[in-house]
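Priority: low. Protein: NAD(P)-dependent oxidoreductase. Input follows.
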Amino acid sequence: MRITVLGAGGGTGSKIVELAREAGHEVTAIVRTRNGRDAVADVMDPDSIGPHLAGADAVVSAIGARSVRKPTSVQTDSTKALVVAMKAHGVRRLVVVSNSGMITDGDDALTRYLVKPILRRVLRHPWGDMARMEDVVRASGLEWTIARPPRLTDGPRTDTFRTAVDTTVRGGSTVSRADLAALVLRCLADPGTAGKAISLAY
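Result:
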């Protein structure tokens, strides 16, 4: 499969690129800053993204905000540009990385009424951006999947995570970036995940 990955310079994006290449996929890694190895594009500009989508079977967006303290629209705006570019180049399959923190369906009472309200105040800027990004994805008309991890760690790949569709994983509070990357690749290979938001956690 030919896969283009946006946000490939981040912790999650780099794991997705690594695992995809290990699995034998042809990967175009897009980063914001030139590093002499990956493709550079302005992710807010469809014309800049477009050339890197030519011939792709699927696109993954692992773009994230660089700060939790300031208002941001990086995920919303980059996703809008990506949708335009994908349609222009005839690419239909999209997997985006969001988060499960802003979702309370399936949570126990402690998490729903104590933990997440606190986190929602602290992370209101990036979570608000992710919620708006999900709206863009759902309205895109593409074959999309939203991957929703909880707090991410740099732990190893275990393939022992649990998943839930359109709800949270009850009692799950962490997952490694490596396992998130593994889920993203599973979603790309499974057309049955299109049109669904899939949470994962241990």
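The beta strands are 2-6, 26-31, 39-40, 58-61, 93-97, 143-148, 151-153, 162-165, 174-176, 196-201. DSSP finds six helices and ten strands in the chain.
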